[in-house]
Amino acid sequence: MPAELHWDDAEEIGYQLAESFPNLNPLEVRFTDLHKMIIELPTFADDPSKSSEGKLEAIQMAWNEEREDRQ
Question: pTM for this structure?
């Protein structure tokens, strides 16, 4: 696990979201809510304003893959 997470760490952020929110379906989370969840992760250290739709989508897909792997 990286000491600090940044927007490009989609796989690790997806893993941490799956750990933190095991009962949520990532595909039902709005990007505004996803953004908030990410920046509130304890090891997230990037500039919140540097997110983009593409980065959020990559994180959402990584979270969904992690969730499917656990089922």
Answer: 0.94
d(CA 61, CA 65): 6
The pLDDT of residue 22: 94
C-beta of residue 20 within 8 angstroms of C-beta of residue 42: no
Taking each continuous run of H as one helix and of E as one strand, the counts in the chain are 3, 0
Cα 66 to Cα 6, 24, 47, 49, 59, distances in angstroms: 18, 12, 25, 26, 11
User: What's the average model confidence in pLDDT over 42-71?
Assistant: 96
Report residue 25 as tokens. Answer: 């379906």
Give the Cα separation of 31 and 19 in Å (integer).
19
